[in-house]
Amino acid sequence: MDMRVTKFLKLGPDRRRIGLFAEFFNLFNTVNFGEQFGGNARSVLFHKPVGFLAGGYGTYPFTVQLGARLEF
Fold this sequence. Notes:
Layout: E1 3-10, E2 17-25, E3 63-71
Antiparallel strand pairs: 1-2, 2-3
């Protein structure tokens, strides 16, 4: 699960404002196994995860990214 939080602050009487944000990736720090489960009912791996999603997606640890956006 990923999440983004933004807070906007006004900069003077005109339309200028700055947006401060934080982005959280892998919020609960869990591994996503995708749909790769053992399918042979006679195997000890039946309905157990046997691999990760292709390309390593879902194997990254919890990460935070901070940033700012100026609007004028």
